[in-house]
């Protein structure tokens, strides 16, 4: 099955009209069958939050949950846990409602732009996989060395052998901190595609205060989405489930582009939540 959605559910204005923030996930589930949880990146979430999200979504709904920033090395300095093992244990406890409900698609380990292809980093990825044993995990790199001619096949083979889901990126080609489009599945159960936009200027200007607003400011045109259709059809044959997320939401474009992609693929979802009626 192909699941198409966006990252987060709070900032997509075209999906909501007179919907309070507390009810946005319920309404979101009327539009898309999958969402990426970003809150888990910034803090290990209380179980009560996760249980609420599970309860507010249809039975067939799926969550892609970003790994906590301390687990991927984004948080520089000391982590607010006694040890790395304790950090992973706290995170695993937080996702129990996702697992028990069957709504967890995967945990996304997105490593930072400075996480390059070295022996130490390969060993750390192995450590992450051991910590998350029995839980589906996906791997996204931000340093292009992993896909350089010397390491590309080794990277893909490593992901296959270690049971990682490949997170394939569509993003600007703007130096070491961006990765090429590598349309290869590494897991027979699932593959993930994340559309970050193609804003080269914004991708390189990350030192400014509002860099997030600039980096993902991009709207895909019809031709850019259409060029992905043969790649999606290829990946559909290589994995049982294919997840497609749009992360280009600085200008509110992600939800519209996601719906365009659904139309291009000819998908009609069943089992979505009922849309709220705006009576007044």
TrEMBL record:
<dbReference type="InterPro" id="IPR002763">
    <property type="entry name" value="DUF72"/>
</dbReference>
<dbReference type="InterPro" id="IPR036520">
    <property type="entry name" value="UPF0759_sf"/>
</dbReference>
<dbReference type="Pfam" id="PF01904">
    <property type="entry name" value="DUF72"/>
</dbReference>
<protein>
    <recommendedName>
        <fullName>DUF72 domain-containing protein</fullName>
    </recommendedName>
</protein>
């Amino acid at each position: 099955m192909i699941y198409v959605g966006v990252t987060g559910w709070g900032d997509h204005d075209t999906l909501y009209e007179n919907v309070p923030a507390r009810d946005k996930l319920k309404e979101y589930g009327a539009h898309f069958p999958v969402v990426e949880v970003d809150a888990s990146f910034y803090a290990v979430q209380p179980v009560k939050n996760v249980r609420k999200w599970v309860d507010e979504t249809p039975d067939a709904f799926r969550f892609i949950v970003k790994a906590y920033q301390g687990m991927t090395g984004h948080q520089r300095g000391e982590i607010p846990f006694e040890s790395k093992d304790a950090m992973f244990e706290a995170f695993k406890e937080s996702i129990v409602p996702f697992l028990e409900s069957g709504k967890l698609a995967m945990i996304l380990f997105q490593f930072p732009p400075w996480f390059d292809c070295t022996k130490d980093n390969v060993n750390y990825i192995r450590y992450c996989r051991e910590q998350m044993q029995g839980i589906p995990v996906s791997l996204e790199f931000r340093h292009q060395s992993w896909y350089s001619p010397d390491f590309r096949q080794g990277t893909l083979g490593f992901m296959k052998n270690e049971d990682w889901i490949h997170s394939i990126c569509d993003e600007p080609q703007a130096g070491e901190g961006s990765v090429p489009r590598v349309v290869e599945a590494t897991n027979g159960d699932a593959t993930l595609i994340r559309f970050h936009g193609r804003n080269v200027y914004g991708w390189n200007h990350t030192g400014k205060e509002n860099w997030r607003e600039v980096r993902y400011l991009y709207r895909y045109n019809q031709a850019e989405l259409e060029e992905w259709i043969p790649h999606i059809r290829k990946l559909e044959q290589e994995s049982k489930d294919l997840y497609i997320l749009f992360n280009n939401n600085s200008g509110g474009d992600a939800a519209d582009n996601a719906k365009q992609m659904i139309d291009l693929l000819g998908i009609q979802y069943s089992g979505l939540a009922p849309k709220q009626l705006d009576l007044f």
